[in-house]
Amino acid sequence: PTVNAIAAVVPFTLDRTWGAIRTAYDSLSLPVATFDPATHTIASPTLRLRRRLGERPLSKYINCGNTQGGQSADSYEVQLTIQTVLQGAEAGTTRVLSTVSAEGRPITLAGEYTHCTSTGNLERRVTELLNAQLNR
Hints:
- By secondary structure, this protein is an alpha+beta fold.
- Helix content is 21%, strand content 41%.
- Strand 11 and strand 12 form a beta hairpin.
- Helix 1 crosses helix 2.
- The longest helix is centred in the N-terminal third of the chain and has 14 residues, at 14-27.
């Protein structure tokens, strides 16, 4: 399965945006495994999650299908990674490219992980928090 980056543009320079991106990750309870100023890349380690990421249900961010009780993402063990790359864009703006990769499996069954898709909400939330931080 392919994983597509969700792109957005923030009206701030690359240097200023890079200085604020870690705060956006912190606000989402995302630990940082990669923080590379040369490529302007920040990424979480592979997180093993159950039910929630921070204060939000996992189904807000990923889709692993449905079970009889609702969204599978809210009852599965989920492995999730997010990566954001910042690129300088025209007129002093910055392009924000975020990619979420996730897979899940039922907690009660010992089986293989299956691919989950992103709802796009986590990627958009990174950009929203980044904008909020930069507009302070």
